[in-house]
Amino acid sequence: MLRFPAEAVSRLRPFYEGRVVCVTGGAGFIGGHLIDALLALGSLVTVIDDLSNSSLAHLSSLIDLDPDRVHFIHGSILDDAALDEAIGLQGGARTVFHLAALGSVPRSVKYPERTFGVNAVGTLRVLEASRSGGVQRVVYASSSSVYGDGNRQPKSETMLPAPASPYGAAKLAGEQLCATWSRTYGLSTSVLRYFNVFGPRQRHDSAYAAVIPLVIRRLIAGERPQIFGDGAQTRDFTFVGNTVLGTLAAGACGKPLAGEACNIATGTRTSLLELTERLAALTLEGAVAGSSFKPEFKPARPGEVLHSQADIALAKGLLGYEPVMGMEQGLVQTVAWYRQVAAGTAGGPAEGM
Question: Hey, which residues are catalytic here?
Fold first, then answer.
């Protein structure tokens, strides 16, 4: 279970305690951590997820712990009836966290039409269901991929988006839909551009898994980690606790929000080579990591940007967001969890916040 500073908890609890919320894609990696936090803050949570790229294991454990406060709808955000049911349960959601998406830039290059259908059209469906269901605010999980591969760093929300992949284009379309539904219908929306989220419970068993779980999995298995490209590309790796806190802050923000986009990240950047070397040092014995660590370089994947670092000034000023954990601390926790998985000792959700 993620733990947040007492000040953040005391600030968020009055808003979320007893509040009915709906999380789309709540069976996924970020969604699961968000639900942990919402339950710790006293919310009543409904989850809709089609389980196409996630597992019900963690969510099932939460339902077993508190069946009166956690409800699950197995369905797609493209299914209007399922969406209406999810948003209407427990007296009706007042806040919707829209995390459901078909992730991965490489997958979007291979399946562009499906990616746009789920990520853009699906967002339209969520906005419409929220509007008709009396939702007060929709918080939309967008992505740093909307910026594309411009040379300017850090990435600021004032920059003109230029997606380099179908995934980025679909996420940008969702952003525009949020802003339009705010202007046209008065639905309060908040757009969050997540930057390279990582942490415990992130999938490592998929061809489209993110770099950190892939590297850790191979290191634990005694295999050489793989780097796509030359390793010089940089990312603003953001521990999932920071992402969840930014998401909660957006939902609770008392200021009028009408589709403003905010970067949720740390404001730093690390090269993939540096990251892989650090993970090797954390995962392997020091002598082994220093003497025989040799990454395997693979061809760069189409659609992926070279450099990505966030300017987080707007999120701080508008939402009161502040990162609570640096990359190093996050990597330590993440490696420890994957070690538990390898040893078969990774447990369920912890209590408390």
Answer: 167
